[in-house]
Amino acid sequence: MALVIHYFMNISxxxxxxxxxxxxxxxxxxxxxxxxxxxSFGHPSKEGNRVINFTVGxxxxxxxxxxxxxxxxxxxxGHTKYTACAGILPLRKAICEKLKRxxxxxxxxNQIVVSTGAKQALANAILAIVNPGDEVIxxxxxxxxxxxxxxxxxxxxxxxxxISSIKKSITSKTKAIIINSPNNPTGAVYTETELRALATxxxxxxxxxxxIYVISDEVYEKLIYRGxxxxxxxxxxxxxxxxxxxxxHAMTGWRIGYSAxxxxxxxxxxNIQSHTTSNVNTIMQHAAVEALQGSGGEKFLKDMLAEFDKxxxxxxxxxxxxxxxxxxxxxxxxxxxxKTNVNAEQLLEHARIATVPxxxxxxxxxxxxxxxxxxxxxxEGMNRLEKFLNTSSV
Length: 394
Ligand code: PLP
Description:
The protein is of the alpha/beta class and 394 residues long. The chain has helices spanning 2-10, 13-16, 22-36, 65-76, 89-103, 117-129, 145-152, 192-202, 263-274, 282-293, 297-321, 344-351, 375-391; strands spanning 52-53, 112-115, 135-140, 156-161, 174-180, 213-217, 239-244, 257-260, 326-327, 335-339, 353-354, 356-357, 366-370.
C-alpha cells in the first residue's frame, strides 16, 4: 500500500490521468496465452489452444517490395543523418501532390509536418491548439487514443452520439472536433453531404468568435469497400488533416505519418516536435517518398482491399446468423463492431478468441473484431464463436 501511495506521489497528475490502451492490454494477454500453449513452453500446441487474435489493427500483409527496396537504397546512399524536423523536402512535396491528387486539397510543403506515425501527428496537433479547459468534441464510438490525448493537453473531451449530434454540443469553450472516417472501430464512412453539413454548422455564429478546428483523421482513407472518401478540409479551412502510411501501405512498424494544416498550426507542430522527437527516421522518409510516387502501390492496395472485402463479407454474414449477435456491414477500415452481451474476457478464456471490449471506444455492449487475420483463422474463429454461443448460458 505504502508503495502504491509513493508511486502516485511521484507520478505527474497528467500521467496519472491517462488510461492505458485497452487494445494493447488485451492483445498482450492473448499473446501470452498463445505463448503458454506453444511447444516451446513444454505443451504440445493443439489447434484448440491456439488463440485467434481479432484485436490487432494492422494489415497482415508485408510492406510492398518497392518500398523495402527504397529503404535499402536510402541506407546505401548514406541517408543516415538528421533532416529538417518537419521532414525532407521531397517527402513533403510528395505529400502535397498526394493531397492534391487524391483529395483535391492545396497545400505547400511548409504546411506539412512528417511525424512518427499518425499517432504522433495527432498528439502534436492536439498539443498545438488545445489550452487547459478547452472542450474537444469527439463522436462516439471513437478511437481509444483521442480522449487520452485531449486530457494530456489539459482539455476536456466532450462525447457525442455520431457526427449529426456535434452541432448541439458546441459551446463557447469548444476548441476542436475530432472526426475519423473511415472509422475505427465502426468502419463507417462519412458522406460528403454529412461532412459539408458539419462544416456549415461550424460556421454558425457563437459567443466565442474563434474558429473551431477540425482534426480529421484519415488514416483509413484507402480502405473503402463502399462509398467514397471525402476530406472535410475541402470545405472547412481550419482543418488539420492527419494521415499516414501504416494502413494504406502496410507500414505499421515503420512509424511514419503526417499532418497538413495552416502555416500557423504547422509551425507550432514543428516546434513541438523539434523538442520531443525531431525528424522521423531518415531512411523511412526516403522510403515514404517511394511509397507515394513509385509504381506498385496501386496493385498492392487493390489486392489487399479485395482480400479484406472477402473477409468482411464472410464475417458479417456469419455473425448475423448467430444467436445473440448482430452487426452492421462496415463500409471501410478493417473492423466490425458486434452488438452482444458476451464479454471479451469470457470469450478469451473459454473460446480462445481475442477481441476488444466496446468500452474502450465508449461503446459498451459491443466487441470489436479486426479482420486482419487469415481467412482460415476467421473461419476457425467464427466456428468457435458459434459453438461458444450455443453451449454457454450468455
Ligand atoms: N488513427 C486511427 C483511427 C488508428 O486506428 C490508428 C492506428 O490504429 C492511428 C491513427 C495511428 O496510426 P499510426 O500507425 O500511423 O500511428
